[in-house]
Amino acid sequence: MLSELTTQENNLIRSQSYINGEWVQAASGKIFEVSNPATGEVMATVPDMSREDVRKAIDAAHDAWPSYRDLTAKERAALLKKWYALILEHKQELARLMTMECGKVLQESLGEVEYGAGFIEWFAEEAKRTYGDVIPANTKDKRIVVIKQSIGVAAAITPWNFPLAMITRKVGPALAAGSPVVVKPPSETPLTALAISYLAEKAGFPPGVYNTVTTTDNSEVGKEFCENKKVRKLSFTGSTPVGKILMSQCASTLKKLSLELGGNAPFIVFNDADVDAAVKGAIVSKFRNSGQTCVCVNRIYAQDNIYDEFVEKLSKAVAALTVGNGLDKGVQIGPLINEKGLAKVKRHVEDALSKGATIIQGGKPMDGLFYEPTVLADVTRDMIISQDEVFGPAAPVSRFSTEEEVIQLANDTDYGLASYFYTQDMARCWRVAEALESGMVGINEGLISTEVAPFGGIKESGLGREGSKYGMDYYMEIKYLCFGGIK
Q1: Which positions fall inside the Aldehyde dehydrogenase domain (predicted)?
Q2: How high is the pLDDT of residue 1?
């Protein structure tokens, strides 16, 4: 597999973890393989680090903290800008590498490189804007000032579905704030993480400021992040059950947490909607990365009068999607990440069919880790696919009659990450947007992620926000200064 890579891509492939400015193996010598989900071929091996190895990375970050936080905001911003430029310079190689290790189609990978780099650029600029306050004092002889300071070592646990952007969304604000980072990428997609670590090294971040550890021992490494007192902030993107475990484990050290967890996004199409626009929005939101994103549409609700038209047009659009290796020209749907992901899609579709749903398009597994892009009609609340995030290319469509009914259906979930709806009624835009219980709402829009807006959910979809001007606050402490004796 490595023989198919270009010289530039080979330069970016790292077979070691990055700790304290050095490329290192696990102390035990253990390694694990990284495979291409589209072909099954092994791309590379990387260190399988232990809890003790990770502790060394945390120690290095903690030791680097005093000198790094003392850099001016302008100096930290300059480092981030160099990193940003290097990532864009290697956009093509990073995108191909990402497609090979996680399966998403090349065009989406190219988009992710730009999206992920955008967080670095944004927070390079925000580094110089971490303003405090001067508060009117309660007595004449006092002055009250509020400042913001770096929180300390930040640990990031990232998912496989966005192997670059989920890192930069976390480490961008941390590095801008003056906090060294320790990144643990998923075992499915460590190569992209190591590649951008290499570019961070080239950008000139001091030893210990940026660390990346690869491992399959997620439980023990997670415990180390949570229980180590030198880690003052943990950011995690992943499942709600794992997020709850991490939150519980962090209680012993009372860390600041950002948790971006599971979703169950509703997508509502009202009678007065532009149906063609709604179909386009559903395609981009449901089938991006083969349905493997946390903000993917999971439940589609179409109102009575346009239900049949919407299902028909959606099915035609889905039938036109091309499945295959993400590096091949014209492919729009890549593989599922692994057998577990494929089995989940199968289980959801089979359960829906057993309870009365109808397959309008697709509905079958293909060779390898591929699954046909699927549309299911007549879906009801009691089906698993209505209650659980399918994380695959299957779109279930349900019918509804009234605005009040669909809001109740949309909110009838423990999750609240993203939601979407289409209507041409401006009053309804405001009513429904305010009524939906989710942290992000797409109104006549299926693609909502951007570095300039706060990303995050409510209820069991997590806590905290990433991106935007709000993202810096989660990597900083607020300190109140009281000056007395002023006459």
Answers
A1: 23-480
A2: 45
8 Å CB contact between 466 and 236: no
Distance of alpha carbon 121 from alpha carbon 118, whole angstroms: 5
What percent of the chain is modeled with pLDDT above 70?
98
Q: What are phi and psi of 126, to 5 degrees?
A: -70, -25
Single-letter code of the amino acid located at 58: I
The model's pLDDT over 120-142, given as tens digits with 9 standing for 90+, comes to 999 999 999 999 999 999 999 99
User: Considering the entire predicted model, what is its pTM?
Assistant: 0.95
Q: Which residue numbers are catalytic?
A: 260
Number of Cβ within 10 Å of residue 126's Cβ equals: 20
One CATH from 3.40.605.10, 3.40.50.11540, 3.40.50.720, 3.90.25.10 for 2-261: 3.40.605.10
pLDDT by residue (tens digit) across 323-336?
999 999 999 999 99
Residue 11 pLDDT: 81
The SS3 of residue 415 is strand
Contact yes or no for 87/116 (Cβ under 8 A):
yes
- What's the first-to-final CA gap in the chain, in angstroms? 74
DSSP H helices, 239-389, are 240-250, 275-287, 307-319, 339-354, 384-387
